[in-house]
Amino acid sequence: MILTSGGLNTDSEQNYPFLYHVGNINLSDSAILFYSEGQKWVERLTGEKLPSELCMTSSRPWERDPTTEPQDPLEVTPLGTMILPDRQILESATDRFFDCVLGCIWPLPDQVLFQKTMDVAYGDQNDSPSRTHTARICVWTTWAFISTFPDISTDLSPKKRGEVVNSIMASINLLQQPHIELLESMSMLVVLHLNSGDIQSSILSNTVAARFVLLLGANTRECFKSACRFVSLGDEQCRREYHLRNLFWMCYIQDKELCLRSNQPPALSEYNCDLDLPIDYQQNYNSSPSDDNCKTPVFAGDLRLNQLKSKAYCDLYSRRALEKDGTRILREIRQLDGELEEWRMSIPMNHRPTLLFSQGTGYRSDSFSIRSLMMHLEYYYCMSYIHQACGRFRLVDGTEDQEIQGISSSLSLAIATCRSSLYYLLEVKHALSPGDFWLVLFYPLSAILTIFCNIIAHPSAPEASKDLTIMRQISAQVRELGDREGEVSGRSHNTDRVWKVVTSLEALAKNTIEKHSP
Fold first, then answer.
1. Which of 12, 297, 384, 422 is disulfide-compatible with 107, CB 3.0–4.6 A?
2. Which part of the chain is the Xylanolytic transcriptional activator regulatory domain (predicted)?
3. pLDDT per residue as tens digits for the range 172-188
């Protein structure tokens, strides 16, 4: 949100109304309007209150609200009593997963290692009960995970999948010995929860996954070197370490994403991790992965961009960063902005996000993929996230004009990148599937909240009406995609809540503009 935590004297507030004052609040929380300080600020500017049903909730608008979930029975079927999926059907489904681009974007199970996991789980080897239990957890989690992809047919309905996930969660003993199969399982659970809007469960699973990463050494230089030997020499003895590094990067990506979505500190610290990229990673940009040619992990989004997201949080929004003075914050913003632009220019042209995406810009449909989608959305959010931090700068008498211009420029850029995010989503809406709803919802809603704040702070500005139009268009898109997701998942009450959020903000922005019209 573009809000200040420092107070302004009266003259400064009148002369520089782009700075908003709502008290001492952590600015990385995009749901600030749903706290009492933000609600008072909205009421002061608009003369209206946000609807109470939007304010009295323990979750952010891009999360499933657990208080509205149907009350399921407390009994959970023990995993040990559940009959494993037919192995032949499971192998057929996983083969389809590994043979298409999905296995490259989500390299959570490994094709060779998973065969060994199935051997143990299905009793083909004489293993201990503990070892068999771990393998069964991995098999069930993999089955639940791949069932979320429409292109891979399984007999697991969304309701049944939820029951399986509950059984998996209840069966994991956090005191058991760390194992690569447990890391696989926890990493897949993170994605399952994240893609269904259950952010809190995703955070809990991510915390456990991060601990397993450290205990198994997936974060180390030694593991990276072994992974390089596997890629360069085909040394099968290093396959486990190669897979551990893929799991490390998946955990790292999820960890940074959850940090931004939840405003909670990350579980993995860069100070304890080797961040050398996979040696074949950059080459993956030279061609668009397809179902036929993708053989190496490309991940969703970009690993280097995730490193920048993490740095932005640490430098601008962490507890230690909140103690920095305004001048240092502005310096950090300039440095991060330069690094982000350097990253953008390093991306091949056919995948590179445009600096700003405007209406009618268009996109290359031949290069569209989930990786491209997430890269664009994450880039625009990261740009806005960085520049919104200037709202913490406290204007006092004697503030230099250069600093004031820098703040104004940053705030304008933050709003412009929010518009870019929304325009981009409108452009690619036909390529989005119901399964993308909870994954991408965070980006339009956080952008809408920022634009809403800008509208009610400047209702007479020339851009206000255009921004209101964008909000309406995105509201319609969110409703359409949410309805489709609700039909698939059977949880339409959660998507209804999202619709109430966006339509209420839209109506409030419209009323504010009309009140200030000549």
1. 297
2. 202-284
3. 987 788 999 999 999 99
